[in-house]
Write a structure and sequence with these properties.
This protein has 2 domains: 64 residues; 199 residues, Rossmann fold (3-Layer(aba) Sandwich), CATH 3.40.50. The protein contains 11 helices and 11 strands. It binds S-adenosylmethionine.
Length: 297
């Protein structure tokens, strides 16, 4: 069989993905082709003919995507900041909305943290936030915590790859971010904490890519979506140095509630709610202030 033109294959794939209910069929058809051909998506027009074996492989990958397997599990990578993470079954796929939380944390570090700054990523999953910060700030001492053993395997693999590429190593711990005895050695020492914990209220209907592939432990957190965030905040108070910052991602129904939880802890100032790229409430930030003295009556 002779070499085939790429364009009809792209059009056919886009139509197949659209019929399967994929939200961005053209984007995904092109991303998969670019991955397979190892070229920039914007340069696909310069690849007029492809080998029959490549076309066959392409169609197999499109069939997978049509079964609503996440695009990132098929290409094997997802971006965060300036880096790409390896992802696959067993780990949460980092999302574009978390990029804004990352930007906030990097800006906070830039605007007046001690050097070298100490950073803690709670619920690290693939290692996305921890490794993106370590890449952007080679002077930072970055720690990351994850409970799920399968996710930890991905985080450690990504950490090894980033280190081999020259990034500053990060320290990854297996642990529960709600455990009051977790990491006492970091008490009062952390400059910035980033947290993208599970936060979806139980029972919320999700797209097949999420419901059938992201680990349930990465998604759901009790009836209101606050079962991890609420107990985690007491630990955040403990770990942050005075003047240190926290950013917590949350369900779009919970912006005011997370701000209220931080306010209720009595140890945070400059509490502010932030939207995501779609304008939905997505993360809350705050700064650790000195513990208030108890006034005796
Ligand atoms: C929404 S994912 C976020 C992953 C990563 N931070 C990101 O932005 O791509 C939440 C992660 O928290 C982990 N997790 C859930 N409960 C946890 C807990 N109590 N302690 C530590 N990690 C937890 C899950 O296994 C999952 O990897």
């Amino acid at each position: 069989m002779s070499r085939q033109p790429l364009r009809p294959a792209l059009l056919e794939a886009t139509a197949q993905l659209a019929a399967a209910g994929v939200h961005s069929p053209r984007n995904d058809a092109e991303e998969i082709a670019a991955h397979l051909l190892d070229c920039e998506r914007t340069r696909l027009g310069l690849v007029p003919l492809i080998e029959p074996t490549v076309l066959e492989a392409y169609r197999k990958m499109i069939d997978q995507r049509a079964k609503r397997i996440p695009l990132q599990y098929i290409t094997g990578t997802a971006p965060m900041g300036e880096i790409d993470l390896e992802v696959g079954p067993g780990v949460f796929v980092p999302r574009p909305e978390t990029e804004l939380l990352l930007c906030w944390a990097l800006g906070f570090l830039e605007s007046g943290c001690q050097h070298p700054p100490v950073v803690l990523d709670l619920c690290t999953g693939s290692g996305a936030l921890a490794l993106a910060i370590a890449h952007a700030r080679p002077d930072a001492v970055v720690h990351a915590v994850e409970l799920d053993k399968r996710a930890l395997t991905w985080a450690r693999r990504n950490a090894d790859l980033r280190e081999a590429d020259g990034d500053t190593p990060v320290t990854i711990y297996e642990g529960d971010v709600t455990d009051p005895s977790l990491l006492p050695e970091l008490d009062g020492k952390v400059d910035v904490i980033v947290a993208n914990p599970p936060y979806i209220p139980a029972g919320v209907a999700l797209e097949p890519e999420v419901a059938e592939h992201d680990p349930a432990m990465a998604l759901f957190a009790g009836p209101e979506g606050l079962d991890v965030i609420t107990p985690m905040i007491a630990n955040v108070s403990r770990w942050l140095r005075v003047g240190g910052g926290i950013a917590i991602e949350h369900d779009d129904s919970n912006g005011a509630k997370v701000a209220e939880l931080l306010g209720g802890a009595g140890e945070f100032a400059a509490i502010a709610e932030h939207p995501d790229l779609a304008g939905k409430p997505r993360f809350v930030v705050a700064v650790r202030e000195p513990a208030r003295a108890t006034v005796r009556g």
